[in-house]
Design a protein that fits this description.
394 residues, 10% helix, 6-stranded antiparallel sheet, mainly beta, globular
């Protein structure tokens, strides 16, 4: 199997598409041609020690039971007017053209919108959970981090849950993942070189310590004690709709093979399964053999999690060049270039390849014959999976 690498030169994605169309089976006989056409690997900057230990090996929290809703205070609506501007963020109106489809789901909007996508980094470890407010996310991206764990990026465009969390730090792959959406990204911070990469990619950052009531504390021990107050974050984010179509949404059925479930064994502590529920026409998430539990709102009872579409992008994993305080290597992933792809929707799976020529571009999806296909509109959970993980479809 060839390495996932980035195409360069004037042909870019279009040239790579033509190559694959002419010779189906990207990882078969066309490998040599693709390697000639692709001459640059996107390399992230290297940095020092991780400021946010994500190995998550501390004992479980003792202040809040897993089945009890956390305690938060939702500020009055007029609190927004008292918020100081976010440091380093321009409060002026954006000139971005409006969009007519939700850029996270592909659903047609009631009216054109120039709103900015809001993204929140959410801890996904057992010690941090259960997550809060992510059921209202229109798109969630899950990426592996150190210690065999994964971290979530919950993204919002139309929906505004009261709070989302627990909020945690950014990782090196986030600049490449977030760049096409150019979101207003909420986190507790991160390595300085990671923040620089995000800003250079057009992502605006809102971090812990910013003036204003954007973060609140819940009854969980540090560092799992912060949630983001989404209505205030959305008000601060302002306008700035994504300038490109990031995921290839369309109005045609997926038309793949029947698939009842998919298993993604990220690690011994993070084995993910998605099961198709025909009655609801959704995929239900399970982790380590149990139903995945979340608080859909700050004052709600625990519930499961379901989504309309699951996208699995296989990507080359490599070291980000530093370790966390526990000595675990921090990974990053090549999400520019090409790789194997699985899209699950409506009880079907379409397999093929994903393509992406530059950080500012969206993804192109090809089926196994080399023809482009689109994803039906709906809520999406996007899995970034290392190429060495043995994904099983049933």
């Amino acid at each position: 199997m060839v390495d996932d690498q980035s195409p360069s030169g004037e042909s870019g994605i279009s040239g790579l598409i033509e190559t694959i169309k002419q010779r189906p089976g990207l990882y078969g006989g066309v490998a040599a041609v693709v390697l000639v056409a692709i001459v640059a690997i996107v390399i992230l900057a290297m940095g020092g020690g991780d400021e946010d230990p994500a190995a998550e090996v501390a004992p479980p929290p003792t202040t809040t039971g897993a089945g009890a809703a956390p305690t938060v205070t939702i500020p009055d609506d007029d609190t927004t007017s008292d918020n100081a501007p976010v440091a380093g963020i321009d409060d002026g109106a954006s000139s971005a053209p409006p969009v007519t489809r939700n850029p996270l789901t592909g659903v047609t909007l009631d009216a054109a919108s120039s709103d900015r996508v809001v993204a929140v980094k959410v801890d996904n470890s057992t010690e941090a959970g259960p997550p809060i407010g992510i059921q209202d996310a229109e798109l969630i991206i899950e990426t592996p981090v150190e210690g065999g764990l994964t971290r979530l990026t919950a993204m919002f465009f139309e929906n505004e849950p009261q709070v989302v969390g627990p909020v945690r730090s950014v990782r090196p792959v986030d600049a490449d993942l977030m760049a096409p959406w150019k979101p207003f990204l909420v986190s507790t911070g991160g390595q300085s070189f990671v923040n620089r990469e995000l800003v250079a990619a057009g992502v605006e950052l809102l971090e812990e310590g910013t003036e204003g009531v954007f973060f609140q504390q819940i009854e969980r021990r540090q560092p799992y004690h912060l949630v983001a107050t989404i209505p205030l974050v959305v008000s601060e984010a302002g306008e700035g709709a994504p300038p490109v179509e990031v995921l290839p949404f369309g109005d045609t059925p997926l038309g793949g093979s029947t698939a009842a479930s998919v298993q993604i064994p990220f690690s011994g502590v993070a084995e993910v399964e998605w099961r198709y529920e025909s009655g609801d026409d959704t995929y239900v998430r399970r982790v380590n053999g149990d139903d995945y539990q979340i608080f859909p709102q700050y004052d709600a009872d625990l519930t499961g999690f379901a989504t309309d579409t699951v996208i699995v992008m296989m990507a080359a994993q490599r070291s980000a060049g530093y370790t966390d305080p526990a000595g675990a290597d921090v990974p990053t992933f090549d999400v520019i270039g090409f790789g194997d792809l699985m899209v699950f929707h409506g009880g079907e799976v379409m397999t093929g390849q994903w393509l992406r020529s530059a950080q500012s571009d969206g993804w192109v999806f090809l089926d196994d014959t080399g023809a482009q296909f689109t994803v039906p509109a709906g809520k999406v959970w996007l899995e970034i999976v290392p190429r060495f993980v043995d994904v099983a479809i049933q």
